[in-house]
Design brief:
Elements: E1 19-23, E2 26-31, E3 38-41, E4 45-56, H1 62-71, E5 77-88, E6 94-107, E7 112-116, E8 120-125, E9 137-151, E10 156-159, E11 165-167, E12 172-176, E13 182-184, E14 202-205, E15 210-213
Antiparallel strand pairs: 1-2, 2-5, 3-5, 3-7, 4-5, 6-9, 6-12, 7-9, 8-9, 10-15, 11-14, 12-15, 13-14
C-alpha cells in the first residue's frame, strides 16, 4: 500500500516531553500514574494510546457552578488520569503552549484546550457584560504548569501598556491577568438593531500587559428563533 499519508512526517513524534506539539494543530500529552492529571475542554480529545481514566468535571462547585447555570459559560471539562499518550485538537485551530511559573493568565473559554491539573482555575466574569456581550465569563488560571490554548489562525500579540487597546470579545484569546478589561460600546443604540454582539461591543484593555488576538470572531452564535 502506497500513499503520502504514510510518510514519516505524519507519524507520531516520539518525545520524552510531557507536553509536545504533534503538529501546529495537534497536541500530544504523556501521562503516568505519578503525573498530575490533565484538565481539558470537553470534546478536545481526538485519540489516546494506553490506559486512561476519564471523568467530567463540570464547572466545579460553589460560585463556579452558579456562574455556569446563569450564563451557560464554562462548559464541562474533562479530567484525565492514566498511563500513555493522549492527543488534543480543536477544529484544526493552531495550538500554542504556555508555561506558567507562578503567574496568572486569563483565557477566553472557547480557546482553552488543556492544562495541568496542578494549576488553580476559576471562572471570572467581566462585570456587566453577561447580557450585553453574549455572556463574557472567562477562565482564570494561576500556578505552576503547562497551558495549551488554540487560535483560529495565526495570533497577534498586542502591547496594552502604551495606549488603549480594544478587541472584539470573540477574537480575544488570552490576556495578562492583571488587566481588567472594560466593556466599550462605540455604536449608537439605533445602529445595533438587527446586529449580533460582534463589533457592537469591544473589550477595552489599558495597562502593563498583553492581549493575544486571533484573526477570527469564532463560530457565530445562533440564537433561538433566528
Amino acid at each position: 500500500m502506497r500513499s503520502s499519508l504514510f510518510d514519516a512526517a505524519n507519524s507520531e513524534r516520539q518525545t520524552a516531553e510531557r507536553w509536545a506539539l504533534q503538529s501546529g494543530k495537534m497536541l500530544r500529552c504523556a501521562l503516568t500514574p505519578d503525573s498530575p492529571e490533565i484538565i481539558s475542554a470537553a470534546g478536545a480529545m481526538v485519540a489516546y494510546q494506553g490506559q486512561m481514566d476519564f471523568s467530567y468535571q463540570g464547572s466545579g462547585g460553589g460560585m463556579r457552578l452558579l456562574k455556569k447555570m446563569a450564563t451557560g459559560e464554562g462548559a464541562n471539562m474533562m479530567r484525565t488520569r492514566g498511563h500513555g499518550e493522549i492527543f488534543y485538537a480543536r477544529q484544526a485551530h493552531d495550538v500554542f503552549l504556555i508555561q506558567l511559573e507562578g503567574e496568572a493568565l486569563t483565557l477566553n473559554t472557547s480557546n482553552v484546550l488543556a492544562f495541568d491539573g496542578s494549576i488553580n482555575w476559576d471562572i471570572k466574569s467581566l462585570g456587566g457584560a453577561g447580557f450585553m456581550a453574549g455572556g463574557l465569563f472567562n477562565l482564570h488560571l494561576q500556578g505552576h504548569g503547562m497551558v495549551a490554548v488554540t487560535s483560529d489562525g495565526p495570533p497577534m500579540l498586542l502591547d496594552c501598556s502604551q495606549q488603549p487597546t480594544c478587541v472584539d470579545p470573540q477574537a480575544a484569546v488570552c490576556w495578562s491577568a492583571n488587566l481588567a478589561p472594560q466593556i466599550k460600546n462605540d455604536f449608537k443604540f439605533g445602529s445595533l438593531i438587527g446586529r449580533g454582539s460582534g463589533e457592537s461591543f469591544q473589550l477595552a484593555f489599558h495597562g502593563p500587559g498583553f492581549v493575544v488576538v486571533q484573526p477570527s470572531e469564532g463560530v457565530p452564535v445562533v440564537r433561538a428563533g433566528s
